Amino acid sequence: MTPQIEVVFQPHGKRAEFPPGVTVMEAAQALGVDISSLCGGKGKCGKCKVRVLGGDGTVSEPSDKELKHLSEEEIRDGFRLACTTRLGASTVIHVPLRSRIGRQRLQTGGLEIPVKLDPLVKKYRVTMPPPHLRDSRADEDRLLASLTEQHGLPELGIDFDVYRSLPNIVREANWDATAVVWKDRIIALEAGDTSDSCFGLAVDVGTTKLAGFLIDLKRGEVVAVAARMNPQIPFGEDVMSRVSHIMNGGWDALEKLQDAVVSGVNEIIVECCGEADARPEEIYELNFGGNTVMQ
Ligand code: FES
Asked: 54, 60, 235, 252: which could form a disulfide with 86 (CB 3.0–4.6 Å)?
């Protein structure tokens, strides 16, 4: 096994082990440390200056690109470009304030236009007669017939996962359940009456900002809002820098960018649910708006 080196970022206090030869930027991205990167790590913008503390003799020599952006005094003080500097031994990296993307005030308010509430996802509480000698219908037939009788729904499709869990759920719930219907399909079946909790999440995936709006689909109200900087920023501050980062780094880079945005959305879900006292499983529909590069 290749011996690992430990990289510590200050003042964040984040640390992890990496293989020798890792660039400071790669380590920062893996740890979610925000370092400005206007050119997407090509050594062109000079925005990613960091101070390398220690690791003498094991850090790569300043490249021509670095020499263009760093003064002699900065090099003497240990400043380097994070995207081109490779580390050969355990090192502490200080990220100065000017190189951090930092937290910003995020605008999440907007104009709310009244719309007629007609969500694609609806919940229906349904009670079913238990089987007996003269009623030996299959569970799914019993469920569909009860939904038609009690809510006037036409025959619906049933998702495979619902088929699998249906026998257990209806018996455990004593034949009293809630069907979650998306368009003309049952996408979930829940024990008891859960018809009051039905949420959707709208996410604005911006170049710099992710904003999530948790919407109560039963009442048509925005019940929680959460926002954070787009975690893809360390890979490039604008869309074109991120595209070129992927073109240079291939599938691996693409996967990292996707992981970054997915983890940002997951954090937003947790935050919104905490604020609205909802559970992530009660979000039945997600809508995203954004440049497809960011997906
Ligand atoms: S010089 Fe632009 S990210 Fe390093």
From this structure: 60
